[in-house]
Specification:
about 25% strand; Nucleotidyltransferase, domain 5; alpha/beta; seven-stranded mixed beta sheet; single chain; about 180 residues; two-stranded antiparallel sheet; 9 strands
């Protein structure tokens, strides 16, 4: 996939660097405008813990390109020490998902953001490890975010995989996965 990189943030601390084959998870995020980073990071951390998956295995957050400049999303990616990937609605709409939503289709132009973004970022052969989950805002109001987790396919020869040190970056993807 080709993409364009936007301004980079701080590098991931050395203790978050994980050997390539172990860093195989991508978290898709659907979010309303203005959702705070704290709600997003709590959602991601909670869903990972519930599924017994380590945060250190997360390679990136992925979302709809229309949300990629949201301060909460950018801050969540920085706090989690991963890059933020962004996909156009047309790309996400082409990804088959188990839980499409008419409401999301009407609002975003794609029947799925969280699951579709996770699968798109996982690439060909990626699988959905955790289906869409909703956030629980601290004020007890309506959920403002969803996340889903996809697993990238295992490389053929893991002995040649380099250590991955990711910088907080937003990349937009214009092509289908």
């Amino acid at each position: 996939m080709s993409g364009s990189a936007l301004p980079k943030g701080p590098a991931v601390p050395a203790e978050r660097a994980v050997r390539g084959p172990q860093r195989d998870l991508v978290v898709g995020i659907g979010a309303r405008p203005g959702v705070p980073a704290e709600e997003l990071t709590a959602l991601v951390r909670g869903v990972l813990a519930e599924a017994g998956l380590p945060l250190a295995a997360v390679r990136a957050l992925a979302t709809l390109d229309a949300r990629a400049q949201e301060p909460g999303l950018r801050a969540a990616a920085a706090l989690l020490g991963v890059e933020l990937l962004a996909y156009p609605a047309a790309v996400l709409a082409s990804v088959p998902v188990p839980h499409p939503s008419g409401a999301v289709l009407a609002a975003a132009g794609t029947p799925s953001v969280a699951e579709a973004a996770a699968l798109a970022a996982a690439g060909p052969g990626g699988t959905l490890a955790v289906p869409k989950r909703k956030s629980v805002p601290p004020d007890g109001g309506a959920a403002r975010a969803t996340c889903a987790i996809a697993r990238r396919p295992a490389p053929h020869d893991s002995s040649t995989q380099p250590t991955v040190r990711t910088q907080q970056t937003v990349r937009t993807h214009e092509e289908t996965p």
